[in-house]
Design a protein that fits this description.
Blueprint: E1 17-22, E2 25-30, H1 43-51, E3 59-63, H2 69-77, E4 82-87, H3 90-102, E5 108-112, E6 124-129, H4 137-149, E7 151-162, H5 166-176, E8 179-186, E9 189-196
Parallel strand pairs: 3-4, 3-6, 4-5, 6-7
Antiparallel strand pairs: 1-2, 7-9, 8-9
Length: 198
């Protein structure tokens, strides 16, 4: 990835179309004011993309997908499987759908959804999320429980959070998941991997 592909907080950037090289793929995505990481690819999402492991042929969900970048890389790595993108914000979902077409991705489904409500009965092998931490601890616990409920046995969850949120999210994962570990801690962000055993 080029340095220009990464948004640094406080850095002015007027581009509406960003091209990023991620995991060997060139991904293009449009951003707009009012959308998380409107200036480009945020450092947390980049770290999650670098760390996530996906078995080709899996069922994958990107919870709180934003512009779609995490789900798009997942879909590129999961050509034999399906990847679902969820967000509660209609403006964001319309942008993610536009970006999916821009990247000619056909093995994904973009859903306007409160957590997993659009696919309420489906369970996934893998759930990815850069959760909306600004919504507070109550939301994070709700999202954690939703991930557990929609994860298959022996499935995994990858979350990226700001380092300051690590103690609270670790407690949540200890409460709701069979096991968890920190797999990356870099530039103010932490990636946690949790597992649900049967």
């Amino acid at each position: 990835m080029k340095k220009s592909d990464i948004w640094i907080p406080g850095q002015a950037r007027n581009d509406s179309l960003v091209t990023a090289n991620l995991r060997g793929f060139e991904i293009k995505f449009r951003t707009k004011p009012g959308v998380f990481s409107k200036h480009g690819l945020d450092l947390g999402s980049r770290l999650l993309i670098e760390m996530m492991e996906i078995n080709n042929g899996s069922s994958v969900a990107d919870l709180g997908c934003g512009t779609g970048i995490i789900g798009f890389v997942a879909a590129k790595l999961n050509t034999k499987g399906v990847t679902h993108l969820f967000d509660v914000n209609l403006r964001v979902i319309n942008l993610a759908k536009e970006n999916a077409k821009l990247n000619k991705l056909e093995n994904i489904k973009v859903c306007l959804s409160d957590n997993f409500s659009a696919e309420a009965h489906r369970k996934y092998d893998l759930i990815l999320s850069n959760p909306a931490q600004h919504l507070g601890n109550e939301y994070l616990e709700e999202a954690t429980k939703a991930c557990v409920d929609h994860l298959k046995e022996n499935g995994h969850v990858y979350w990226v959070i700001q380092s300051r949120m690590k103690p609270f999210v670790k407690r949540l994962f200890e409460k709701y998941f069979s096991s968890h570990e920190i797999i990356a801690n870099k530039e103010g962000y932490v990636v946690l991997k949790a597992t649900k055993y049967g």
